[in-house]
Design brief:
The strands form two sheets. A seven-stranded parallel sheet has the order 1-10-9-8-2-3-4, sandwiched between helices. It has a three-stranded antiparallel sheet with strand order 6-5-7, with helices on one face. Helix 8 runs parallel beside helix 9. By secondary structure, it is of the alpha/beta class. Strand 3, helix 7 and strand 4 form a beta-alpha-beta unit. The protein has ten helices and ten strands. Bound molecules: ligand BJW and zinc ion. Zinc ion binds next to loops. Ligand BJW binds next to helix 2 and strand 9.
Length: 250
């Protein structure tokens, strides 16, 4: 069912839910001024030096030109350091206090959920403010922007490091995905927020949840591949729609 607002029926479903899982994508950060990857909702598509995201954020480019990959991420870090969470991020941080279990799964690497106060965030595609050593695999905070040295070096062994993000053609962190998949299988309400739902395996999570009997609520200004199977699609912006689930905040 496609809706243009949060109805009383939806609020009842929300209030009666026991186990809630949420998958977010780039759209939730759009109202903070972060461009999405594939556009939608009137937001700009990310382009950089005329190259496409599948080329820039790829395992292949990491293997052939790691300095360029760092430049691309350095450019994005420069943009992200001045953005703040929006009402959508803050609403989800409130939801976390209300449900147990509550699982927040994000494809975003921008750290804005944590900045909004969410305590437990499953970052499927990593975190742009972390680096991973190419030799010893240590993961460490790398918040310096712009980078002083390209590539940054490992704080443990001194070898070159890479951004701790999951590029196209790379595997997701196994334990993180397992926890997300478990939550999708066990929840009774699953929200899909601000994602075009075309990148796998993340896009498979709402499908698993549906197969296990969960209700699916999508929040997106546009219809997506998930809309056909969602029980409800609310056509709207995350920052406007999500706070409305908490009656006293509407
Ligand atoms: C709003 C809004 C507002 C706007 N409010 N909403 C099956 C078939 C074919 C291919 C594959 C397959 N399974 C796997 C693959 C390969 C590939 C894949 O899925 N490709 C597809 C494109 C077809 N997957 C992978 O490579 C993954 N790895 C993998 O599967 O490993 C196994 C393997 C190993 C070796 C070879 C092959 C497979 C890894 C994928 C990692 C993706 N990483 C990226 C980059 C991260 C680093 C970086 O940031 O640079 O993650 S890609 C990019 O897309 C980024 C995002 O997290 C991800 C998802 O995008 P998202 O969040 O959905 O954003 P958009 O822009 O697409 O959508 C925004 C939405 O917001 C829109 O709908 C708007 O309408 C909406 N919106 N304003 C609410 N205010
Ligand atoms: Zn190291």
């Amino acid at each position: 069912m496609v809706l243009d607002r949060v109805t009383d029926e939806l609020i009842s479903i929300f209030e009666d839910a026991m186990r809630v899982a949420v998958l977010t994508g780039a759209g939730i950060s759009a109202e903070s001024g972060v461009p999405t990857f594939r556009g939608g909702g009137g937001t700009d598509v990310w382009t950089w030096r005329g190259k496409h995201i599948t080329e820039l954020s790829s395992a292949e480019l990491m293997a052939t030109d790691p300095a360029l990959v760092w430049e691309w991420f350095d450019y994005r870090r420069g943009m992200l350091k001045s953005v703040a969470p929006n009402a959508g991020h803050y609403a989800l941080a409130d939801w976390e206090k209300r449900f147990s279990p509550f699982t927040l799964i994000t494809q975003n690497i921008d750290d804005l959920h944590r900045a909004a106060g969410s305590q437990n965030v499953l970052e499927l595609h990593g975190n742009i403010w972390k680096a991973r050593c190419l030799r010893c695999a240590s993961v460490f905070d790398a918040r310096e922007s712009p980078l002083e040295k390209n590539p940054p070096t490992c704080m443990v062994c001194g070898a070159a490091a890479r951004p701790d993000v999951v590029l196209f053609g790379e595997l997701l962190p196994e334990t993180v995905f397992e926890r997300a998949d478990k939550a999708a299988h066990q929840c009774d309400l699953f929200f899909v927020i601000g994602t075009s739902a075309v990148v796998y395996p993340a896009a498979g999570l709402p499908i698993s949840a549906k197969q296990c009997g969960a209700k699916i609520i999508e929040v997106n200004p546009e219809l997506t591949d998930i809309s056909m199977m969602a029980d409800y699609t609310i056509l709207g912006k995350a920052g406007e729609v999500l706070p409305r689930f908490l009656r006293n905040r509407a």
